[in-house]
Amino acid sequence: MKIVIGLGNPGNEYIHTRHNVGFEVVDYLADKLDVKLSSNSRLFGESARVSLNKKKIVLLKPHTFMNNSGRSAVSALNWFKCRYSDLVVVLDDACLSVGNIRVRGGGSSAGHKGLQSIIDCLGNSDFPRVRIGIGGSGNIVNHVLSKFRKTEAGVIAEALSKAAEAVEMIIMGDIQEAMDKFNRKERKDQNESISGGAD
């Protein structure tokens, strides 16, 4: 079983903010797989169990707020008797241009407090994650809690679809293929940005 945990903050005031793109990918997958998330006090969030190409997965949106995401992640791993490597974390990344996707099989939190909470609670960072670029400018706290501009709507909608595809590839055991597909695009965009591209 794989546990797909999208990071974000609960509450209407945080809906569609940059920090909540992890939640939105989980919602995207739930809609695609025709399943409804429901409150689960054991997991400290909303969750749903579903199959993807005969692979059992759990979709999870923690309600612990971003900085305590690890509490929900560990509870899910313990409840379903999964290993930390069965976790797939989806999160925002202010260091990536809006819409860029980065897939990694492990590594540091790079300063993301939600991801760091999971690493701290697990005592391990060797689990896959899919990062979604939200851009970064000005006061970082205000930025991540802001909503996307209308001009970014199309880009982020496409990014959510791509991130969901990356998650599905990881679940099917194709993480290297996902890295090759999505990280290559990211490097190209970063090179364009360095050479004077927009964003």
Q: Any chance you could write out the topology, listing elements then pairs?
A:
Elements: E1 2-6, H1 21-32, E2 38-40, E3 45-52, E4 55-62, H2 69-79, E5 87-93, E6 101-104, H3 113-122, E7 129-133, H4 140-144, H5 153-171, H6 175-194
Parallel strand pairs: 1-4, 1-5, 5-7
Antiparallel strand pairs: 2-3, 3-4, 6-7
Give an account of the 3D structure.
The protein has 199 residues and is α/β, with parallel strands linked by helices. The protein has a single domain, classed as Rossmann fold, CATH 3.40.50. It contains 6 helices and 7 strands, in the order βαβββαββαβααα. The protein has helices spanning 21-32, 69-79, 113-122, 140-144, 153-171, 175-194, and strands at 2-6, 38-40, 45-52, 55-62, 87-93, 101-104, 129-133. Strands 2-3-4-1-5-7-6 form a 7-stranded mixed sheet, sandwiched between helices. Helix 1 (21-32) crosses helix 5 (153-171) and helix 2 (69-79) crosses helix 3 (113-122). The longest helix is centred in the C-terminal third of the chain and has 20 residues, at 175-194. It is globular. The N and C termini lie far apart (38 Å).
